[in-house]
Design a protein that fits this description.
Elements: E1 6-10, E2 14-19, E3 22-26, H1 35-41, H2 48-62, H3 81-91, E4 96-101, E5 105-109, H4 112-119, E6 124-127, H5 132-138, H6 153-162, E7 167-172, H7 177-182, E8 191-196, H8 204-213, E9 216-218, H9 223-232, E10 235-237, E11 243-245, H10 248-261
Parallel strand pairs: 4-7, 7-8, 8-9
Antiparallel strand pairs: 1-2, 1-6, 2-3, 4-5, 9-11, 10-11
Helix pairs in contact: 3-4, 3-10
Length: 282
Amino acid sequence: MSLDYHVIETLGKAKVVIENGKITSIEEPNVDYCPIFENIDGVKQLDKDYIEMNINRRINEFGMCTPKRVVKMKDILTFGISEILKTNAEMGVIDCVVGVCDGVGTLLMSDPDIIQGVGGRVSALISTTPIPEVIEKVGRGNVINPETGDLDPIKGLEFAIEKGYKNIAITILPSKTIMEIRQYPLPSDVNVYIFVAHTTNATLEEVESAFKYSDVITACSSKHVRDYAEKNKIYYSGAKVPIFAVTPKGREFLDNRLKMIGKELTTNKYPMDKTKHPQPLI
């Protein structure tokens, strides 16, 4: 492995490798169509050519996976996980987000603009190597392991508790770690809220665990997420790529953002109209 090696999953869960600021590998996407990217670029078919163009644009525009990485940004979408977290951080409902950043690894974020900038335009970070310039931008003292760029949400939670944060949000991919976070022995005055993203192609077991233990879940292109939500009438917002509020606190987080942008609050209207959803659902 080179000294500069970053793996993300994005755009139909295609795996993309970036080394030294250049794309070195793109796998085929698992999803053919996503309404988000039709809205952005008018694209009706996700393919490797579009993925290459889109990722190169991110590298050029905000330095993704390079020393030029911009870490503070304004809202990217009207309503996404990073926007929800940013709004609730601005309101003081959340005082820390444990997340991941390319070139950094797991880190703690309390600045709403960094919460938005780190998560707003990167899908799933699978692995990364440290970029000193980016680590300095987010604050070396906020990084779990600046020498290795580890992705470790449990260590992130422990670090947040050590630093005195009380209302901690954690962004995470579908995995057994969701249960481990929920079962972690917290101090009595600490609350942890779990936001599950990148659910495309998650297994039924992973989805059931996510709904059991988390507060907020994105639908992405997951059939299992939609089927579970439909069966259990989970509150949600979004007509094309819904975000589900699993707990009352999750609903508060979503509604805080929706109120801010003047949109209808979370609903449990079913059946959902899936004609505008990503295709295929997997």
